[in-house]
Structures are given as structure tokens and as C-alpha cells.
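Colleagues,

For the teaching module next term, I've prepared a clean inverse folding example: a structure given as C-alpha cells, and then the sequence designed for it. I'd like students to try predicting residues themselves before seeing the answer, so please don't circulate the second half yet.
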């Protein structure tokens, strides 16, 4: 075999190894109901804070404990426990991506990603004025 053929085969093999290594990182999002069916398995939930229930956070008593109730788009609720500092402006977030696993009766969250409201959204009462030059 030529050296170029061997080098090409090595590059193809390396590309296959890289693609296989990334398939483990593919993220799927679960509903609360499907996450409850997989207790102990690491999942990603998309949810909002359910403001009908109180949020438990006391920065003086324990700054690394946050608990709240999350609700998904299907209306399912679950208590979320997060052992870290409360993210800034979490209450204003439109949606949360919660990474963790269901344990017993709650979701043990390892990481919280927030989708904040966009400042570029049009106001519902805003009138568009066009001008002619």
C-alpha cells in the first residue's frame, strides 16, 4: 500500500472514533413523567418554576440548598433539589433546563441552565409607524 492510502485509512479511523465518542454526548430532553420512569438515570428536563408552591432558599442558613417545584409543558410537577447557589434572576426565567436524576420523590439537580426573557421581543401594544421619505 502507498503511504497516502495508509494515511487516509488512519484519518478515516480517527474520524470514526471521534464520531463514536460524541454519540455519548447527544442530549435528549425528557418530560417529568418519563424521567420518573427512569429513576437514578441522568436526564435533562425542560420545565418552568411552579409559582403556586414556595421556593426554599436561605442564603444565610445554607447558601448551597435550593428547593422548588418545577412544572413541564404537560402540567406534571416535581420537587427539585439543587445543592449549589441559587442562580441570579432564576424567577424571571421563561424556561429551565434541569440536569440531574430522579431520586425517590424529587429531582436531584446537578446543573440549572436558564432561558431568560428576550429584551428583543416586541411589546404587544407597540405600534409600528412607517415613514415615507
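(Answer key — instructors only)
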Amino acid at each position: 500500500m502507498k503511504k497516502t492510502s495508509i494515511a487516509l485509512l488512519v484519518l478515516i479511523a480517527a474520524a470514526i472514533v471521534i464520531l463514536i465518542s460524541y454519540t455519548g454526548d447527544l442530549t435528549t430532553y425528557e418530560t417529568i413523567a418519563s424521567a420518573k420512569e427512569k429513576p437514578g438515570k441522568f436526564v435533562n428536563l425542560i420545565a418552568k418554576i411552579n409559582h403556586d408552591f414556595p421556593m426554599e432558599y436561605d442564603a444565610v442558613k445554607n447558601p448551597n440548598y435550593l428547593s422548588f417545584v418545577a412544572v413541564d409543558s404537560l402540567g406534571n410537577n416535581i420537587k427539585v433539589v439543587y445543592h449549589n447557589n441559587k442562580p441570579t434572576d432564576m424567577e424571571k426565567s421563561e424556561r429551565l433546563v434541569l440536569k440531574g436524576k430522579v431520586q425517590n420523590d424529587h429531582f436531584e439537580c446537578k446543573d440549572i441552565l436558564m432561558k431568560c426573557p428576550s429584551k428583543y421581543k416586541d411589546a404587544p401594544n407597540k405600534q409600528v409607524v412607517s415613514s415615507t421619505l
